[in-house]
Amino acid sequence: MIKILNTRYLLIFIFFASLTSSSYAQRIISELETNSDMSMDARPDSAETKKKKKFIPTEIRAWTVDEKYGNMTDTDVDTLHHMFMNTDLPEGIEGHYNSLGNVGSPRISRIFMERPDIPDFMFTYPFDMFFVDTDRFRFYNTKSPFMNVTYNWNGSKNTGSDHIKATYTNNAGKKFNFGGIFDYIYGRGYYDTQSTSYMNASLWASYIADKYNFHFYYQHNFMKTAENGGIEDEGYITNPENMSREFTSNDIPTVLSQTWNRQEHDLLFFNHNYNIGFYREEEVDSITTRQVFVPVSKIFHTVKLNNMMRNHRAYKETENYHTYTYLPGDSTQDYTKYFHVRSLLGVSLCEGFNKWALFGLNVYAGFEYNKFMLPDSTRYGGIHTNTTGLVDKEYFKDHNIVVGGQIIRTQGTAVHYNLDAEFVAAGADIGQFEIDGHAEVNIPLLGDTAQVALNAYVKNVAPSFYFGNYHGKHAWWDLDTDKEFRQRIEGVIDIPHTNTQITVGVENIKNFTYFQNNGAPVLTSEGNTFVSNNVTPMQCGDNIQVVSANLRQYFKLGILHWENDVTYQTCSHSEVLPLPTVSIYTNLFLRFKIAKVLKTEFGADMKYFTEFNAPDYSPAIGMFMNQNPLKKEKVGNYPLLSVYANFDLKHTRFYVMYHHFNQSDGRYFWLPSYPMNPASIRFGLSWNFYD
Questions:
Q1: Model-level pTM?
Q2: List of residues 6+ apart from 313 with CB closer than 8 A
């Protein structure tokens, strides 16, 4: 615990403390106690100010940044009222994820087209609920100092969770913005040995001017996840009436105990560019003009640094749980580290500086370096130990020279497109390439504008390093893996007039890489047979095809609203890539105001997916894997139902939810041996403070 409260968190604490002066804190307390909106009132400094009202502007802009070029894409500020009640659920806002159940625990999307690529440090992949990489990190610009504090709670002191997140951002002038985030999750878990304890501290700054721009952020994450290996007997869920005694969820015996996965991450990102151009006059109205800077070209530079660590600890070994043991000792202390730096330098010809510049053109060259640390081994799988008895370290290093470019059009109202390509010209991954394309056309339709979009990519990429190399007590391999060749094309039709969005896509994959449980049958002393755990990397040399269709349809009749999200999927090799055929989210609610000021949504939602051989989970590497071919089990065909009341009053959002109120059905599993959380009351509160 002492290590958690290290210098990084102390600096973040000092940062937030300096922002919240005593007068600012007192105003927040007064606002909460009186339920008033003091951000719109002048401070009572004099008799004159008592008679006047001070207007505090609340406009906030948020955007994400492309980590190659620094292109800015506007996004929503994370203060939306609608669906607030689902933002802290491990299954995701629309229930697309299968998870281990607890808040923040590992999860994987059932919707294949939504799954991101597995990064080189693959252990962050199942934690996208908490871990925020560059492409999802929000930058801000605000006309007033802004702070948001959000708190989510559910369960009891023994089984519930607490999640608090504070975001502060402020502008120093129109061009420079800075801010910080503190995010903390503590989930005790409804089932034994399932706790999650995560902490994030982030700082950022941005400067947006005519000739020079930059974006910077740094974040540190500490994540500790208790692993229970699932419950010992699914009969506690499927046939509770057959059990010899009454029990609560945390009384159910689990397979593992005293087992944890721990991660720490340091991420640093910096992008800046210098614009070359000219000023021209533009008319504001019939008598006023202004000088507007028109960029012609720019020089841009990006650097990204990752320093990451994962530690798998088990102080108590469960007999026959693992098929193989590669390291000596009564406990497990697997340890790996990853260091990555990537630097790009490029030039751009900007879009729209004259009538012939119909698109922007970016080109760059860069260098990336990777270093991985694992326990050492001999050629024959033996173990080197030093004089202290600790396992020696083995380092794997590689580097690549990359070149790439982009053609992009964002201006105009009819047609937009983006073609992005990167090639590895030299280094360990020579021959690797990624080509991504996006195009959209806006079409007038029924008095509104419909949009037709096309997304496509072609990739020939090396799998994550750890698919080829991993050294641990119960998982060990050194393999040569082939590059994955992937092709995708996806069409999207968005019709605002009817609140309809249709997406159809197909993907072909050669050399699909995945994990599978290849454990052997074990006969216990009681005469029972079970299958042990042996996570193994696999590659499928056949061509795999996935076809997906999604319909999002929104209906409205007065105060009655009905949202639907339906996905159909089929895979040519379901034994390699299992997917549910149908996945549904539906939300029926009433939207109205109480006393003309309290925005209210009262309704019920359902998450549902058809039966399929859902992934298994390996605590040894903290990743999902296909089920053992010797023992497969389907989960699904179960509706998870919840009712909620969701409110918004001025700058405050709050909700009350009865989650999984239909628990008594008895088939509620996300994964084999990993049940959904039982019925529970959930509560959330979010404040926005200005000035």
A1: 0.88
A2: 259, 260, 261, 262, 331, 332, 333, 334
